[in-house]
Design a protein that fits this description.
heterodimer, A: alpha/beta, Rossmann fold, four-stranded antiparallel sheet, about 25% strand, globular, B: mainly alpha, ABC transporter involved in vitamin B12 uptake, BtuC
Chain lengths: ~260, ~325
């Protein structure tokens, strides 16, 4: 058992009377793939919003790499090494696919107005490296031919892939994928699942994946966490979860007893 | 012959004012076209730039003539051709106007720029009115409603004052060209990419680790600085300014009309829009009979915008992605 990279302790988030996330606790080990599944409205996406501080935690604590992650701005979360994708793609519509990816890397000197104006040579050299990196990611996602296309013109599935691409551009330690497979050609998604496993093994990237394609999740995950009505109702290996009575109840209409 | 001379003079003054509006419009395009900041308080920076420049160059008022109005920087004399051979004050006050506007934008922005869409619009509208009312009511600053008159001219005495616009025009165009190239380079840089990304989706920008707030603040200050430079040039072009010149119609809304007409998100469109709309406004006075009525101009502007939006929804020059 290695150190957990992500720890969620008694997380609570309520919208009015609705407790979208209700006293959730779980840990994610470094270098693993964790599936986060559950019926619609279980609080999965809210959990991602809490981890990335897009929605404030009302009580509880979240640790990443041993440090508190809650209560800091979203961009600071990202800089610690957490990347995420959105369920509804957050593409930059009137920018090209390549620009969508080139935006991401940290430490771009040209992001300072002064440097961009007075040291364009340095900026250009760095920009070439960033573009090469972006093209590599596009190749991985089979989007190379769309490099110069405006992101708004992509299909839903392609936008989902672009989301994953954006996450990869950040060289993250932890990636939170919110329904990556929805709208993506299943064959391509199997390939991407292999890529995700490869990145886990080669670069030690940790993945937490919210997905409704349960067979896909069961196949690719090391552990599976099941949420229903804001609570974690099961947490174990795919085999353990598959045979869990409460999980079946939650999925087949009943509420966990 | 008189007729011909009148036309030439009109063209000179048209180009000067249109060029100034073009500079301000590039600033608005940085705010709205690129960053997505809904600024309807352009008048704030327009006025601030005009007054900053004027107050700095004006000689101190004669205390026998004025009771409240107190101070003038007198730069036109101390750093002008009378003293040092050339008008060094001119570039300096443009930079000062830009700096004051950028500083005010930075301060105001640091408490308001987090607001989205129409909420930011309301605060900027308020800022525009506030700045105008400050210059209206603080008589010691710039003589209140009477305003400042006889603002010194750069390169004065080179030609008959009648033809002065043709001395000033090249200066305006040089400033416009510099503003265009600097803004264009910024737009095509990684900085400009973050700015555009904020317009497209601020959450995405935050989630890739960029502090959207800081970038918005920088874009707000930069655009305001351009508006300030435009304001300063306007004061020198007009030779006198009063707070009434900065009421929302001429100092904010027609600039918006210029941006929509020319094509938001594109600096060339912003510049073209300024020239086209100002051509329509400034030449409509020559129309015969009731067509020359100043009130009818407003209807003409409205009609023009509606037609352009129907025929070319993205403006005369639509946004194209800058490739670097």
């Amino acid at each position: 058992m290695t150190e957990p990279i992500l720890q969620v302790e008694d997380a609570v988030c309520a919208f009015g009377g609705l407790r979208a996330v209700d006293n959730c606790s779980f840990e994610v080990e470094a270098g693993t793939i964790t599936g986060l599944i559950g019926p619609n409205g279980a609080g999965k996406s809210t959990m991602f919003n809490l981890i990335t501080d897009m929605v404030p935690l009302q009580s509880g604590r979240i640790f990443f790499d041993g440090r508190r992650l809650d209560g800091i701005p979203p961009h600071s979360v990202a800089r610690r090494g957490v990347a995420r994708t959105f369920q509804i793609p957050g593409e930059l519509g009137r920018m090209t696919v390549l620009e969508n990816l080139a935006l991401v890397p940290e430490g771009q000197l040209g992001e300072a107005m002064f440097t961009s104006l007075f040291a364009p040579g340095i900026v250009r050299r760095q920009e070439e490296r960033i573009r090469d990196q972006a093209r590599e990611v596009l190749g991985l996602l089979q989007l190379t031919h769309l490099e110069e296309e405006l992101a708004a013109n992509l299909s839903t599935g392609q936008k989902k892939l672009l989301e994953i691409g954006r996450a990869l551009m950040a060289s993250p330690k932890l990636v939170l994928l919110d329904e990556p497979a929805a709208g993506v050609n299943p064959t391509l998604m199997r390939n991407i699942a292999q890529t995700i496993k490869g990145l886990r093994d080669e670069r030690g990237i940790t993945w937490v994946i919210v997905e409704h394609d349960v067979p896909l999740i069961m196949e690719m995950s090391d552990r599976v966490i099941v949420m229903a009505e804001g609570k974690v109702i099961a947490n174990g290996t795919p085999e353990e979860v598959r045979s869990d009575r409460r999980v079946l109840d939650a999925y087949l209409g009943g509420v966990a007893a | 012959m008189v007729e011909f001379e009148g036309i030439i003079l009109h063209i000179g003054s048209f180009l000067v004012i249109a060029g100034i509006y073009a500079i301000i419009n590039v600033g608005l395009n940085v705010h709205y076209g690129h960053t997505g900041l809904f600024n309807i308080g352009i008048a704030a920076f327009f006025a601030l730039g005009a007054y900053t420049a004027s107050i700095l160059v004006m000689p101190p008022p004669n205390p026998d003539l004025y009771q409240r109005y107190e101070w003038g920087g007198n730069l036109a004399f101390t750093l002008g051709s009378e003293r040092i051979g050339f008008d060094l004050w001119f570039p300096l006050v443009l930079i000062a106007a830009a700096a004051v506007c950028a500083a005010v934008a930075y301060l105001v922005g640091s408490v308001t720029i987090r607001l989205r869409g129409d909420y930011l619009a309301i605060t900027t509208l308020g800022l525009g009115e506030t700045i105008r009312l400050v210059f209206t009511n603080e008589g010691w600053l710039a003589d209140g409603t009477r305003g400042l008159n006889g603002i010194p001219r750069v390169m004065d005495g080179l030609v008959d004052p009648h033809w002065y616009d043709f001395v000033f025009l090249p200066l305006v165009l040089i400033v416009l060209v510099i503003v265009y190239f600097v803004s264009q380079r910024l737009a095509a840089s990684p900085w400009g990419r973050v700015i555009l990304a904020i317009r497209e989706n601020e959450d995405t920008v935050e989630m890739v680790g960029k502090n959207a707030f800081q970038f918005k603040l920088q874009a707000f200050a930069y655009g305001a600085a351009l508006m300030g430079i435009g304001g300063a040039l306007y004061a020198f072009a007009k030779h006198s300014i009063t707070p009434a010149a900065f009421e929302p119609f001429f100092a904010t809304f027609i600039i918006w009309a210029m941006l929509i007409l020319g094509g938001s998100g594109n600096h060339r469109g912003a510049i073209l829009g300024a020239f086209v709309l100002w051509a329509v406004i400034s030449s409509s006075q020559f129309l015969p009979g009731f067509l020359g009525d100043p009130n009818l101009r407003l209807a003409v502007i409205g009609l023009l915008i509606v037609v352009v939006l129907l025929v070319r929804p993205a403006g005369l020059i639509p946004e194209t992605r800058t490739r670097t």
